[in-house]
Amino acid sequence: MAITVEFRTDIFPAYENEEGESVNGFIGRRCVEWVRDGLPRYGQETLSICPEDWGWLVFLEETFPFWIGCNNMGCGDDGLPEYHLIIVAEPRNRLFRKKINTRPAMDKAVMALHELISNEPKILNPRWG
């Protein structure tokens, strides 16, 4: 299960040499740090961040693999950087075991991220999918 949000903002400038720190040169570390530091204010505990081959991840506290990915998609027509965030719950399939219901955890994370984004006036045009 995955839920996405895209938006434009200039509040996450790249760190110096950030492209070299990420796996494929993606920037977005400030964005994922903002998510990591902000979600606990809205009831969603976070863990560590790390670079990934398509952006940056912040892991969410849960009993199954659960994370938010952040990717900078370049700049829009107005020159503002565009970001793509995806919330992913990945319970491992275990043969002959009860299926894990990720819906409550996903709903909690989506609500927290929605509140975080809604309370930042410099984030423009969030589009959820």
In short:
This protein has 129 residues and is α+β, with helices and mostly antiparallel strands.
The main sheet comes to:
6 strands, antiparallel
Counted by DSSP, the helix tally is: 3
Mean pLDDT: 88
The total count of strands amounts to 6
Describe this protein's structure.
With 129 residues, the protein is of the alpha+beta class. The chain has helices at residues 18-21, 29-38, 103-118, and strands spanning 2-8, 46-52, 55-60, 66-75, 81-89, 124-128. The protein has three helices and six strands. The N and C termini lie close together (12 Å). It has a six-stranded antiparallel sheet with strand order 2-3-4-5-1-6, covered by helices on one side. The chain is globular, with a radius of gyration of 15 Å. It has one domain. 23% of the residues lie in helices and 34% in strands. A hairpin with a 5-residue loop joins β3 and β4 (66-75).
